[in-house]
C-alpha cells in the first residue's frame, strides 16, 4: 500500500511539473507560435521566407505600430491583405491573446 501511495505521489509530482512547463508559456504566445510565427516571425519582424513573399509588414513599420488592439483583433478575425481570416478557427479570446502577444514586440 505504501509503494502504491508513493508511486501515485511521484506520478502526481511529475504531472504537475509537466503542466507547469506548458502553462509557463501564455496561451497567446503558444497560439502565436503555432499560427502566426511562419509569416510574422519570432519577433514580429516578418523576416521569414513566407513573410517576405507575402510582403508582411514588420512590427516596426509605422502603419503597424499605430494600429490599436481592437483594429488588430479585427484584422486577425476577418483577414487582411493576404492573411487569412481566423474567425471560424479561433475564439475571440484566442485571437485577443495572440494579438496581445504580438503587441509585446512593439517598442
Characterise the protein shown here.
This protein is mainly α and 107 residues long. It has one domain (26-103): Cytochrome Bc1 Complex, Chain D, domain 2, CATH 1.10.760. The chain is 64% helix and 0% strand. It is built from 6 helices and no strands. Helix 2 (27-40) packs across helix 6 and helix 5 (69-78) crosses helix 6.
Range of strand content? under 5%
Straight-line distance between termini: 57 Å
Count of discrete domains? 1
What is the CATH class?
Answer: Mainly Alpha
**CATH topology name:** Cytochrome Bc1 Complex, Chain D, domain 2
CATH homology group: Cytochrome c-like domain
**What percent of the residues sit in helical stretches (DSSP H or I)?**
55-70%
In round numbers, the mean pLDDT is 84
What is the ordering of alpha helices and beta strands?
Answer: HHHHHH
- Architecture in CATH? Orthogonal Bundle
Largest sheet: none
Low-confidence stretches: 7-15, 17-24
Structural class, please? mainly alpha
What is the count of helical runs? 6
Compute the number of strand runs: 0
Shape label? globular
Question: Mind telling me the C-alpha Rg?
Answer: 19 Å
Properties at a glance:
globular, 107 residues, mainly alpha, single chain, 6 helices, 0% strand, Cytochrome Bc1 Complex, Chain D, domain 2
Structure, briefly:
The chain has 107 residues and is mainly α.
Explain the layout of strands and helices.
Elements: H1 2-24, H2 27-40, H3 49-53, H4 62-65, H5 69-78, H6 92-103
Helix pairs in contact: 2-6, 5-6
Amino acid at each position: 500500500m505504501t509503494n502504491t501511495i508513493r508511486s501515485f505521489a511521484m506520478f502526481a509530482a511529475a504531472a504537475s511539473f509537466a503542466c507547469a512547463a506548458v502553462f509557463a508559456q501564455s496561451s497567446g504566445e503558444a497560439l502565436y507560435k503555432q499560427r502566426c510565427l511562419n509569416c510574422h516571425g519570432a519577433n514580429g519582424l516578418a523576416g521569414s521566407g513566407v513573410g517576405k513573399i507575402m510582403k508582411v509588414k514588420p512590427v516596426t513599420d509605422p502603419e503597424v505600430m499605430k494600429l490599436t488592439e481592437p483594429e488588430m483583433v479585427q484584422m486577425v478575425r476577418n483577414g487582411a491583405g493576404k492573411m487569412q481570416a481566423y474567425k471560424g478557427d479561433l475564439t475571440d479570446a484566442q485571437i485577443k491573446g495572440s494579438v496581445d502577444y504580438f503587441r509585446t514586440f512593439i517598442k
